[in-house]
């Protein structure tokens, strides 16, 4: 693999990791809101946060799967 292709694929992996970390940060922020709702209950907001948490968690899983698949491609390309 030439250096420019290596750099391009490496940069893509870094971007994917950044997206994953951003999603995890969103989950953390949602958890803070959920915790705050113990002190100031709001059923509608709680439902919304639970739905957002579920969606963000699924996004993390999808991104992790994408990273894993891309890493396999990256490793195969390095061996060529």
Describe the structure concisely.
Keywords: Coiled coil. This protein has 80 residues and is mainly α.
Low-confidence stretches: none
Query: Shape from CA axes?
Result: rod-shaped
**Structural class per helix/strand content?**
mainly alpha
Provide the β-strand percentage band.
under 5%
What is the average per-residue confidence, as pLDDT, rounded to a whole number? 96
How does this model look, in words?
Residues 53-80 form a coiled coil. Keywords: Coiled coil. This protein has 80 residues and is mainly alpha-helical. The protein has two helices and no strands. The chain has helices spanning 3-39, 43-79. Helix 1 packs antiparallel against helix 2 (43-79). The longest helix has 37 residues, at 3-39. The model has no long low-confidence stretch (mean pLDDT 96).
Which features would summarize this protein structure in a list?
80 residues; mainly alpha; 2 helices; coiled coil; 92% helix
């Amino acid at each position: 693999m030439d250096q420019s292709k290596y750099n391009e694929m490496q940069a893509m992996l870094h971007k994917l990791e950044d997206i994953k970390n951003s999603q995890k940060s969103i989950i953390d922020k949602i958890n803070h809101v959920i915790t705050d709702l113990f002190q100031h209950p709001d059923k509608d907001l709680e439902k919304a946060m639970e739905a957002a948490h579920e969606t963000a968690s699924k996004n993390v899983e999808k991104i992790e799967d994408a990273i894993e698949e891309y890493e396999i491609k990256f490793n195969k390309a390095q061996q060529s």
